[in-house]
What does this fold into?
Amino acid sequence: LDTGATTDTQLEDQNQYEFTWDDVAPEEQEAARMQGLKDYDENGCWETDPSEALTKAELLAFDPDADILGAHWVDKSKLMERDGAIVLAGRSRWTPHGYDEQDPGSVESPTPTQATLRMVHCRGMRKRRVKISFDLGSAFFHSKKKEQSRTWIKEPPELRQADGKVRYRKLYVDVPGTKRGPRSFYETLMDHMIEGGCVRSKVDRCLLYLHDAHGTELGELCVHVDDGMGYVEESAVSWLEAHLSERFMVKFKVVGWH
It folds into this structure.
């Protein structure tokens, strides 16, 4: 299909209403599942050594108070561009049953207030800054790893050993499906932006100020879980995209110039 006039929004609409997982070709389903496993492996989300996986009985004997999570595949059809054509592919995530968590810790994920959003829009347009937006793909898989973890997740069928027993792997990252996933990613994103010189508002925890080395303000950003928007000076656009790309898979857009 010719993709010249197809927008991301149109693709999302078609994904939602026209196709299901059953419509996806078997080879695309398998590729999606393999990518789902790679998300865990490549980002160090769980123990990658199969010899360290334990059955539930072994796990309870090893740590009676371990947090043991069941899991299942969440499969979705997904239209995407590939080599200039639109193909029907899939996205699969091995998703834990987060409601099984016994002690998830703080799970609050801050959300910018409507007043903050209006203020950022008004100030950005008044200062004639560049409006930008960004979306961080596979966000939760890029959250910071825990140094110590007592959380274990069931292995998918694709990784079961020859004896067919269900085993569990230690989980180091609050992946999608865990109660603390949104909060962990919020903390990861904030730490990365502050390390880059941004300043978090004391009034709204989702508002960030960009400054140069001399303390001059270069823009404002509002973040909500894995996406964000804001208005920045033209000189800061390239830096912001590059800084986000250092740590995350980012879709960065310049929405408009004022």
User: Anything to note?
Assistant: The first strand starts at residue 54 and ends at 55.
